[in-house]
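Sample intake sheet
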Amino acid sequence: MTQGDLAYRLRELSGGRVKTTQSQISNWERGVAAPSSIALPFIAEATGHAIEFFYTSGPGEDDDEQEAALPSYHEFLEAIRPVARLFEKAEQ
């Protein structure tokens, strides 16, 4: 799936509330910008991840030590980069 296809899917899933464009997704992938918190649930749904995937530090880390842990900007970008590949595989 292309960035444009993903943008369309996010608009579709959100009922038009998330007006994501191919250009915005490109900016996320390049680290120029990050998705809004409103878009995250729809990104999670589109990618087949639970929303917690985007808010946790990683497996095996103690949540008590990292209260309300959020991924670093780099970790978040790494997590959304495979989005297009996931959709490409699903379409085959």
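Comment: The chain has one domain: 3-91. Confidence is low (pLDDT under 50) at residues 63-67.
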